[in-house]
User: Fold C-type lectin domain-containing protein from Magallana gigas.
Amino acid sequence: MVNTVECPEELPFACSSWIGAVRLNASEFIWNRRGNIVTYLPWYPGEPDNQKCVHLLRSALWDDIYCDTPRHFICEKDFHEL
Assistant:
């Protein structure tokens, strides 16, 4: 089953999802589950702007926002757990 959400085109931040990356320091992010440094950083123009958690926008670009902002989420699952 795949869940979908209708998102208005004119609101790029309306239908975003947490991806599990969090700020480690001023210039680095880590994957929350494993603690690995994030090396792929496709930021939305003007981002990051000093928030702690990262979400994936409808455009497939990233934005950092406060961690308590309600969003959908994407979970990582190990292949052997499938």
The radius of gyration is 13 Å.
